[in-house]
Write a structure and sequence with these properties.
This protein is an alpha+beta fold. It is built from nine helices and ten strands. It folds into two domains: 7-96, Phosphorylase Kinase, domain 1; 102-280, Aminoglycoside 3'-phosphotransferase, Chain: A, domain 2, CATH 3.90.1200.10. Helix 5 (146-165) packs antiparallel against helix 8 and helix 6 packs antiparallel against helix 7. The longest helix has 20 residues, at 146-165.
């Protein structure tokens, strides 16, 4: 999702650039969403996070450096003290990637297999919360009918109770990406690169695998043949795990709440947001549904 940046964001960016010794001249907005991404001179990228996310931004930089030290390609943070806090918003600086495109199903699987084989980091990266920000998103989803919003909140509470009760035994907990889809595991001319480390944490590797499985079984974005290719490349089919339905339900709810939150300020998304809710409520038949991508 990209909208026009406001003057406050531009001022935050300028102040952070000055503090980091980076040139803010002719900064160009790339993506303005929950986090803001800007292109700077000299092949640099700045990311402005939400207020209150300093710890998360600091962890993201540290995780990137840990991945690079373990020979896992990722966005490279600039060698400056960061994040830089300006007006309560943390700003981080990165080297811009060369031209890249979404990774293939096989590349996503191979990248996750490599990541999940790493030892757990020796610093705190937090524990997975599959439901982070969903209550806030649903709370601001003003275009949804109240009965739909109540149903989604009930669904959230049911899934959270199942999560809190403990999932069936599965793969050993590892460092996981947290938002593993082809837009965050991209292909450059040289290699496959992990991006967007904001949701990096310790948790069940199944959470990363469920992202692709749900895009096959729930949204229809991945064909059965592609999903078989994914399972072959990774060496595991998460849909055969007894805990799949809980994590797939959480992933579906994340996709629905994201669309519903932003439909409030993007009228063009309202039909798709409502359609996703209707699918979950059984108004459009069984899975897979044809969900349109929302950026």
């Amino acid at each position: 999702m990209t909208t026009a940046p406001n003057s406050s964001s531009a001022a935050v960016l300028r102040a952070a650039c000055v503090a980091a010794g980076v040139d803010p001249t002719d900064a160009e907005p790339i993506r303005i969403a929950e986090n803001e991404t800007w292109r700077l001179r000299g092949g640099l990228i700045a990311r402005i996070a939400r207020t209150g996310q300093h710890g998360a931004a600091e962890r993201e930089v540290r995780v990137a450096r840990w991945l690079l030290a373990n020979a896992v390609p990722t966005a490279r943070p600039l060698a400056v003290a960061q994040p830089v806090a300006t007006a309560g918003r943390p700003v981080t600086f990165w080297e811009e990637l060369p031209a890249h495109e979404h990774g293939s199903i096989t590349e996503v699987a191979q990248a996750l297999k490599t990541l999940h084989a790493l030892p757990v980091p020796d610093f705190d990266i937090g524990r997975l919360d599959p439901f982070v920000r969903i209550p806030e998103r649903l709370g601001s989803a003003s275009t949804l009918p109240e009965n739909d919003r109540r149903w989604l909140l009930d669904r959230l509470h049911d899934l959270a109770d199942q999560w809190d009760s403990g999932l069936p035994e599965g793969l050993p907990h590892r460092a996981i990406h947290g938002d593993a889809w082809p837009g965050n595991i991209v292909r450059t001319p040289q290699q496959t690169v992990l991006l967007d480390l904001e949701r990096f944490s310790i948790g069940p590797p199944e959470w990363d695998l469920v992202s692709t499985a749900a895009r096959s079984r729930s949204t229809g974005a991945v064909t059965p043949a592609e999903y078989a290719e994914f399972c072959s490349a990774y060496g595991h089919d998460v849909t055969q795990w007894p805990g799949y339905e809980v994590l797939a339900g959480a992933r579906e709810l994340r996709m629905v709440s994201y669309a519903a939150q932003h439909a409030t300020s993007h009228p063009g998304w309202r039909e798709q947001a409502q359609y996703r809710v209707d699918c979950l409520r059984g108004r459009h038949g069984p899975r897979p549904w044809s969900w349109q991508g929302i950026m």
